Amino acid sequence: MSVAVNDFVRRQVKGSGKTYSLTMNFEEIARHADEQMVKGQFRSGYRDGVRVVQADKTKTAHFFCPYVRITEETELKASVVKRRENENAYIQVRAITGNPVSAGMVDLICYHHDVLLENNEHSTEEEWELISINAIPEGITELPMGPVTMMRNQLELPGGTKAYYDSKEWARSVEFWQRFAPLKEP
Questions:
Q1: Of 123, 121, 1, 130, nearest to 55 (Cα)?
Q2: pTM (two decimals)
Q3: Closest Cα partner for 127 from 40, 2, 6, 37?
Q4: What is the pLDDT of residues 11-45, one digit of tens each?
Q5: Which of 56, 75, 76, 113 could serve as 97's disulfide partner, Cβ 3.0–4.6 Å?
Q6: Residues 6 or more apart whose Cβ sits within 8 Å of residue 74
Q7: Domains and CATH numbers, the chain
């Protein structure tokens, strides 16, 4: 088994509002994902060919968790953005006040080469590619996919990976993202 770094994950850097590593580079994170998969430390993702790899607990402190709990005092900012040039713009919400919560665990999302080939989104010829790093707030057992990502996938829009979500998955996503927002770092 081998996990390589997909170019898409490289956007996860300080200031992006996404999980990033404070001490590990992307290649080290991909190697760790590979080691964890060999140990069987993963679960199936939202479709065949997607794995959610649990980072070893000793690695959690290596990652910045970008989320703040939304309260009545939280200031939010909405922007119209695109992830990639070929994708539709969407409304991105970021907290501009608040303190990031601690990460309780980190999931490393890996896609099989065949899944990435569907939309020509592979960066290598390796069997698996790391496409996302998700620090999960302490006390939360699973980070729901964002509703915009789910919409892009289910409607098979540019940048989406074909999937279907049931009403409970949609409801869990909306509920979580009403309580947490990524912090817009300076």
A1: 130
A2: 0.88
A3: 2
A4: 999 988 899 998 999 999 999 999 999 999 999 99
A5: 75
A6: 68, 95, 97, 98, 181
A7: 3-178 (3.30.2310.50)
